[in-house]
Write a structure and sequence with these properties.
Layout: H1 16-26, E1 38-42, H2 48-65, E2 70-71, E3 74-76, H3 83-94, H4 111-125, E4 128-134, H5 136-143, H6 146-152, E5 163-170, H7 181-187, E6 190-194, H8 199-213, H9 221-234, H10 238-254, H11 262-272
Parallel strand pairs: 1-5, 1-6, 2-4, 3-4, 4-5
Helix pairs in contact: 1-2, 3-4, 6-7, 8-9, 8-10, 9-10, 10-11
């Protein structure tokens, strides 16, 4: 489980600066203010999604303590691959679709009607909302930025003690170039870039994960070094390094060996490629 893509560790190595920057941006909520919209850039496997999820988990704990009515719908734009599907997902995660007459159905409403129902629900329940859209670049590439424009202007239609803020996570550094100037000015109020991990950083991440995944002495340091070097040389992608380790472990397990070797890593590389 700790070598799977979905696993989010309690502490993310080498991302303290980025975690702090996101936390500072969102901590305005604890003072009952509206946080700026935030765009986060970085190549795949640089920890963007994991860091955001980690910060939001801590934010939820704090807002519960302070009795602040916060909702953070987390949408992956690759899975919810049309603007309407994104609205439907937001409605589901906010709990609108348990409301009866004002549901946002899976199909059948216009975009404007679906948006109106979401805003009406936020007004009636007096909710503060931070919408996180992961892989936001894939949405804009395919369907344009109309939905982003609607949400960046939505605060004009709700009262001052409520808000909708956006956090966009993008794998593309040139994503903003495709935005309409009006969307660009209101969406990218704050920006943050995640740089790729170095080989040495990947090595430390793998050592940390190996402590959770394996018994002692199952994986020699030379094997970890090779794994980090392969992933670091290509992309600096921690996800690829961990995936390489997982597949190598599966190969070793199936061949009934008690240790993971460099040959297992190379076999795993071929299998993944």
């Amino acid at each position: 489980q700790v070598l799977s893509i979905d696993y989010v560790p309690d502490k993310l190595l080498f991302r303290t600066k980025e975690s702090t920057a996101i936390a500072r941006s969102l901590s305005v909520i604890l003072k009952k203010g509206r946080p700026s919209n935030l765009l986060i850039f970085g190549k795949p496997g640089t920890g963007k999604t994991a860091v955001v999820k980690n910060v939001i988990e801590h934010l939820y704990k704090k807002t519960n303590e302070l009795d602040i009515n916060l909702k953070v719908p987390f949408i992956n734009a690759k899975n919810s691959n049309t603007p309407y599907k994104i609205l439907y997902e937001i409605a589901e995660l906010l709990g609108i679709n348990k409301e009866g007459k004002m549901q946002v159905y899976f199909t059948g409403l216009s975009m404007s009607e679906a948006t109106d129902r979401i805003l009406d629900f936020i007004r009636r329940r007096s909710i503060k909302v931070v919408i996180v859209i992961d892989e936001i670049d894939s949405l804009v590439n395919r369907k344009g930025d109309d939905i982003l424009y609607n949400f960046t202007r939505a605060n004009e239609r709700i009262s001052s003690d409520q808000f909708i803020s956006l956090v966009g996570i993008s794998n593309s550094l040139t994503f903003k170039d495709k935005l309409d100037p009006r969307v660009k000015s209101s969406l990218s109020e704050e920006e943050l870039v995640f740089n790729p991990y170095t080989i040495e950083q990947l090595k430390q991440i793998l050592i940390d994960r190996c402590k959770l995944a394996f018994y002692d002495n199952v994986i020699p340091i030379g094997v970890i070094n090779l794994c980090a070097a392969i992933a670091g040389r290509e992309t600096g992608d921690a996800r690829k390094a961990i995936d390489l380790l997982r597949v190598a472990a599966e190969i070793a397990e199936r061949s009934m060996t008690m240790k993971i070797s460099e040959d297992h890593i190379r076999s795993a590389q071929q299998k993944i490629d």
